[in-house]
Amino acid sequence: MITKQKQSKKTMPKVHLSRLKFTILLGLIGLVINLYPIPLFGNAQLIVGNAAYVIVAILLGPWYALLAATMTSIGLFIAWQSWHIFVLFSIQALWLGFARRKDIYSLYADIAFWLIVGMPLFYGYVVMFSDMPGSHLTFVTLKQAINGIFCTSLGSLLVTFIPQLWQWPSKIADSQSRPFNAQLTYTFTQILTMALICSALLFNHYFIDKQQNHLKRNLEDTATQIGIATNKYIAHHQTAINNAASWLSLSSQQDQQWQNMLSRMHQNYPSFITMLMANADGNINAASPISRLNQQKIAKGNINISDRDYFHEAFYNQRTYVSPVFQGRGFGSDPIVAISAPIYQQNQVVGIIEGSLNLNNFGQFDIKHGVDGISMVIIDNDNRVIYASPELGMAALSSFTYSLSGENYKTILQMINFGDIDNQSPEYVFTQFGLDNGWSLYTVKPFSPLLKLLETQYLSTFAVLVISLIITVFLIQTISQRLTRPLELIAKKFSEKRTDFEDEAVIIEAEVPLEIQALHSSIRQSKRQLISYQLELEEKVAIRTFELEKANTKLKSLAERDDLTGLYNRRYAEQKFASIQEMCQRTDEAMTLAIIDIDHFKDINDSHGHLVGDEAIRILAKQMLKSFKRDTDMVSRYGGEEFLLILPLCNVLKVEAHLNQFKQQVAALSIPTAKDDKTISMTISIGAVMGNASYSSDLEDWFKIADRNLYHAKSNGRNRVVTSMQPDAPLQATKL
Prior knowledge:
By secondary structure, the protein is of the alpha+beta class. It is 57% helix and 16% strand. It folds into four domains: 18-177, Arp2/3 complex 21 kDa subunit ARPC3 (Orthogonal Bundle), CATH 1.10.1760.20; 218-456, Beta-Lactamase (2-Layer Sandwich); 496-560, no CATH class; 570-725, Alpha-Beta Plaits (2-Layer Sandwich), CATH 3.30.70. It has helices at residues 2-34, 51-60, 62-80, 84-101, 106-129, 134-161, 163-166, 180-250, 258-268, 295-300, 309-315, 363-369, 448-495, 502-511, 514-560, 570-586, 601-608, 610-627, 655-667, 699-715; strands at 38-41, 44-46, 272-279, 284-288, 321-327, 335-345, 348-358, 375-379, 385-388, 403-404, 414-417, 428-434, 440-446, 590-598, 634-639, 642-648, 671-672, 679-680, 684-692, 721-725. The strands form five sheets. It has a six-stranded antiparallel β-sheet.
C-alpha cells in the first residue's frame, strides 16, 4: 500500500512539471507573436498572441493562465511601453481560468468579462493615465474588447479542433458532463464568432482604406483649388497695383491730383482695405479711403512710411512687392499684407503706390469648402498666420506653431496638431500647398470624424456579433433538441422494466430520422432479451448482496480498525494521509503530524503484566478520542505503545499548547491493576511537526521529523512535547 502511495506521489510532481512546461512554452510563443502586433488603422493593432494564455486557461486553470498572461504581456510591453496590459490581461486570464473551473465556456465568460470588467477598466485607465483625446476613447475601448473576444475565440477553436489538446491527460477535466446541445451550440458559436470578427476586420480595413483615400484626394483637391484661387487672387491684385503704377507713371497729372485718381481706382478694387501713394521721401500724399487719414497731416507730410519694407522694396529695388503680414500703423491698424509698386516720372522713381489686402477676403475660399468640414490656414514667409478658418482659433499675425503627429499610426494621411503639440494623438489630417509668392497653404480636417466613423463600424460589429450569437444559440439549441429529444426518449423507455414498446414507437417514428428509428428498433429487441437475463440475475444478486454486506462490514472493520483500542490502524492512517494532505494543500492550509509514545511502557508490562499494559493503551486511546474529536482529526494506533495523530486545518500557534494540555490529562489518568485495587499512572512523550501541507506529500518526510522530535523528548527526560515548524508554515490558520 505504501509503495502505491509513493508511486502516486511521484506522478503528481510529473504532472505539475508537464503543465508548467506547457505553460512556459505557450507563454513564450505568445510573447514572440505579441512583439509584432498586426496594425489595423491609426494606432489600433490586432493582438493575436493572447490566444496562448486563453488555451492555458481552458486546459490548466487560472494560475497557470496567469503565468502565461504575464509572459505574453512582456511582448506587448516591449512593443507598446504601457504597463496597463499586465493588469488587464492578468485579470482576464484569471477570469477565464476560474470560469473554466466552474465549467463555464470560455467564449461566454470572455464576453461577460469585457462587458462587466474589461471595457470599464480599460476606459478608466485611459482617462486617468493617458493623454489620449476624448474622441479616441470609445474607439480604442471597443477595439480592445473585440480584440479580446477574437483571441478567446481563436484559443477556444484551437483547443476544440486540435485533438492533442482536448485529449491531453494533464488538462483539467470537466466536473460534470455537458449536454450534447450545449456542446453543439458552443461549437457553432465559436465558429460564427471567429467568422464574424474576421469578416468585420476585413470589411473595416477595406472601408477605412477607401475613406482615407477619399479624404486624401478631397484634401489635395481642395488645397489645389484654394491654392490656385489664392494665387489668382494675389496675382490679380498685383496686376492691379502694377497697372495703377504704370498708369500713374504715364499720367501727366501732378501729385496733388493723385488723390482723386486713387479714390476712383480703390472703388474698382474693394478687396484692398486701404490704398495710398507716397513720394520719394516716404510721405503719404494720397490715401483711400480718405476718411481714415487726416488730410491736414497729409498736407503737412506728417505721415511717413519710409521705414516700411513695402516702401523700400518698391522705391529702391524698383519691383512689385508682396509683403508678409504685419500690423498697420497710422493709416489704419488692421493686420494687412501690402502690395506695392514704384511710380516713375522721366525714368526716375518719384514715389510708390500701395494697396493693403483685406485678409478676411481669403475667407471667400474657405466658405466654399467649409461644408466638407475642411479648414484652411495661409502662412507667410515669416511663418505667421495670414488667414485661418475661424474654427481653428488662430489670430492673424500670430506665429504658426504646430507639430506633426501620429508617427506610429498606420495611415496614408499626414497628421498634424495645432493645440496640444506635445501629444502624439493627431488632431487633424492635412495637405500642404505652396503658393507662387512663397506662402504656404494648409487644408486640414479633424481626425476625430474618421475615428467616429470607424468607431461606428466597430460598434456595429459588436452589436451584430452579440445579436448573431443570441440568434445562433437559439437556433442551434432548437436543432440540437430535435436531435437529442428522440434519443432521450429512447433512453428513458429503455431504462423502464416493461417490454411494451408499441406506444413510444409511434412517437419515435413520427419525428426522427431513419437512423434513429433503426436504433430504436434494435434497442427494443435487445431489451426483451436483457430483461429475461435481468430477472434471473436480480434474484441471485439479492441473495449474494446480503451475504456480501455482512462480509464487507466485517472486512472493513478488520482492515481499518485496531482490535485492542478501536482506533484506526497504521494501514488506514497511511492510506488516509494522502487525501488529508491534498485537502490542506488545495486550500493552502497548515497541518500537524504528531507521534505519541507511552513512557517506560516495557516497565509497566514487566511489573504489572500485559493485561495492565493493554488497559493502559485502551485508556490512552479513549483520552485521545476525547481530546482530538474534530471530524477531520486522524487518531490511529501506529504500533505497540506508539500512536499517530494527524491534525489538518490547524492553528500552528496553538497546537503545542493543546498537545501539552493533552499530556497533562494523560498524566492524571488512573490505570487499575490486579493487585489490591491499586492504580498506577503513566506519562507520554510527543514529537510533532507543524507546517504548510505543501511541504511534502510523502508521509515519510513528516514522520521522520516528528520521530526525531520524539527522540529529543525522550532523551531530555520524557513526559515532554517537542515540536518543530517548517519554514513555509503559515503564522495563522484555521482553528484547531
